[in-house]
Design goal:
Helix content is 38%, strand content 0%. By secondary structure, it is an all-alpha fold.
């Protein structure tokens, strides 16, 4: 009979992982699969945010019944906002 044991562990120095469980018998054979959570970096978070915003903008711009606004109108609105 095969048993499954799931543990969330912290990787120790030198890439070492320790698992202790009462169901693990000394000398028994075990197959180990390790799934490492990738720690997000600030850069990858910013890249993902930028990608998500670009998708949102495209989706929003594709909505029906939206008034067409030119790039010049957008720039003027931004300038007005910044000058307040």
């Amino acid at each position: 009979m095969t048993i499954a044991i799931r543990r969330k562990v912290t990787i120790l120095p030198n890439g070492k992982i320790e698992i202790q469980d009462k169901d693990l018998r000394p000398g028994a054979s075990a197959e180990v699969i390790i799934l490492v959570d990738e720690e997000p970096t600030i850069e990858s978070d910013q890249e993902q945010l930028l990608e998500d915003l670009q998708k949102l903008f495209k989706t929003t711009q594709a909505l029906p019944n939206l008034e067409q606004i030119s790039e010049d109108e957008i720039a003027a609105e931004i300038e007005t906002y910044r000058s307040k």
